[in-house]
Amino acid sequence: MSFKRTRLPASAALAALLVQPAAAQDVPGETPASEQGEETPQQQIIVTGTRRTDRTVAESAVPIDVISNEALLNQGSAETNRLLNNLVPSFNFPQPSLTDGTDSLRPATLRGLSPDQVLVLVNGKRRHISSLLNLNGSVGRGSAGVDMNTIPPLAIDRIEVLRDGAASQYGSDAIAGVINIQLKRREGGRAQASYGKYVTTMKGVYDVASVSPTTAGTGDPAIVYETEESRRRDGETWTFATNIGVPVGEAGYFNVTAEYKDRSPTNRSGPDPRRQYAGTGDLRETTIDRINHRFGDGRSQDFNFFLNAGADLGNGFELYQFGSFGQRDGNGAGFFRRPNDARNADWANGGRPYYPDGFLPLIVSDITDVAGVIGIRGTVAGWNLDLSANYGSNRLDYSVENTWNASLGGIVSPRRFYAGGLRSGQTSVNLDVQRPIDLGFGDTSIAAGAEWRNENYKIVAGERTSYEVGPYFFSNSSAPGAQVFPGFAPSTRVDASRDSFAGYVELDTDLTDLLNVQVAGRYEHFSDFGDTINGKLAARLEPVDGIALRGSISTGFRAPGMAQQYFSTVSTNNVAGVGLVEVGTFPVGSPIAVALGSEPLEPEKSLNMGAGLVFTMIPGLSVTVDYYNIKIDDRIVLTENLQGADVVAILRAAGVAGTSGRFFINGVDTRTQGIDVVANYRVPDFGAGRFSLTAGYNRNDTKITDRRTFSGFTADRLFARPESYRLTDGQPSNKLNLGLDWDYEPVGMTLRANRYGSVFLPIGTVNSLAVGKGDAPGDVTLSPKWVVDLEARFRPVPALELAVGANNLLDEYPDRLPVGTIGGFTHSVNNAFLPYSSQSPFGFSGRFLYTRASFDF
């Protein structure tokens, strides 16, 4: 049985989409509430990758994954990024810890590229990026991405993941692909509540049984450990959410979603074996709690609200609006300061410890995310018209708790500080038109549009004591300011904006019944760096019914992020013979950066090529295999901290007071290539319920093909070995998703297994780029791991569903980091109490058990 194409006139299809009632079965492209799971993914009409209104997944000339609402909800997490990590093989969402604000706003990637190289849309409109710039040792270092965890899964009808370059169609950021989140508009509703917690045994970590007091002058205490691995019961998570959809008149819709999440922190740190107190024989050494760090998920309270509405204006026109409000109060921990730590010495009190038993500073993140879109669409003279205005902003305010400013002395310093904040905003106006045209052969669609966009970025200074240099600042003490996160000083304040104007044309035509061709071109002008022109050519050939070949080639770009151009954070050091100087991260236009050789950032430029095979000959089965090759020039990276005698000489010659600095540059060219395999099979009915099988595989390889050098700095100094390998090998080399869904009313089950490939960690102290992967003493490779999730569901009555499940059912952990001297290399003592890598692609929290109750109405 071959798949039969169904075509509608484009204007009729769009009119149906715009003006039909809110009942689910009347909304093309939305999965009907009464028929979820009945339609195969390949039969669904898509709205991403083409502006035609009759294109299905199976007919697409480029690879697209469609994730249903059902697949999102039948899991134990309420975080959209974690859900996609389980369902899309080329999607990666590590869960780092001890990374400042990134603990509360974690980045995700597609096809191993940067978080800011994937474009996120909501209902086809560009979503604003977060204000956070990831800087502290996480995947995506130096980038700012979209916070998709502000979007409740219950608000989502489906997610379309376009795995192909699409800058010529959608503009900046679409190098790796596009994630288009379609919101619900159907009538009806669901209310649900879930509770879960981690019930886990940490691999390779043991609790302390006893401690002998320190007898040697500088030695660590003798510790005896338990024989059984440490057990943890934490991370309690409550989630309450509801979605309600009602009709508005005969053809309108009004759909709202509200969600509240309360997550307690997790802690996967091990005992700290180091000496804690200065005195020899101090008995407190035997009683202090050596689980003194907090390494894992931070505390988080989230409230998210989404609205999606439309009203019939008559004459085929619709007024639509959708928007969101999100509030997240989270915190993450820094490194524990031991009682004998120099950063805990109060020189206003003779150098005695300010916190007698040490302290664990906390970074508190207060995040407010707001977005709104209003538009009108309809048909004018045969053209399908869509005019919209879009605004979004992300606001992040930092506070630091349980800490102090040692330079002020213990009498003056507060223990809680407002450290300042970041602001990111986006405003855009879009006009899109589309219509079918008759070229004398097959069906043809032409689309065109224009966009104006304004982007704004701000840094807000913290309170004075958060960054102040006090009288007890000495050259041999820690930097001044609130410890763990010094506040933004007035010198770092910025309020910068830019505008861009764009126009595009897209032609999608069936040259014959066998061949479809898509051509697109886009011109864009940015006020800060000028013009860019990009194009795309894609084609699909189906020589045999049910077997199709497809391919694409496109150019793309990503405009330099506003944060990459203007972010600044500095600290003041007292350098002998020089005095007080600033060190830190500087904007490219700052005197220090310019003196060291910085230049205005240019856009990243890409060349995307792809080729694939689509197989749909067997009823219920679809298999796609796609190869991709993505060449990116002038990738924007953050330099290493440039320091040394030559740096000081350069800065002095330029009349700049400083000793070091880092800044963003167009530093490397890369090539990423890989393969995606996606298969879906609806098992024929044999009387035991509905079975659906899914499988996905991604293999990805990134290489740095060229590096930039300037001002006499070598490549080793500008972008050294650790960050180079984080870029190329810091994410899984391959990933396999397997899934089984079974539904036999009133019971159902979902079983998923994900295999994450190896991740390379250049832990060794060798920084030379000449030393290959794994050749430096101390290098570590995290081995592949399987993570299995299981959920069982039961409906005692049609409107009520009860579910129990386990994420990471088998309690898998990443490899424990090595401790001590191995092969002549002595690993950091930090590995003793921070036992797992934050680059683990599935986190390091262990088994999560949960239960959920849902009521449909």
TrEMBL record:
Domain TonB-dependent receptor plug: 58-178
Its membrane topology: Multi-pass membrane protein
Subcellular location: Cell outer membrane
GO cellular component terms, semicolon-separated: cell outer membrane
Signal peptide: 1-24
Domain of life: Bacteria
Keyword GTP-binding: no
Pfam families per UniProt: Plug, TonB_dep_Rec_b-barrel
Chain spans, region Disordered: 260-283
Keywords: Cell outer membrane, Membrane, Receptor, Signal, TonB box, Transmembrane, Transmembrane beta strand, Transport
Compositionally skewed regions (Basic and acidic residues) per UniProt: 260-275
Span of domain TonB-dependent receptor-like beta-barrel: 309-809
Keyword Secreted: no
Family under the similarity heading: Belongs to the TonB-dependent receptor family.
Protein name: TonB-dependent receptor
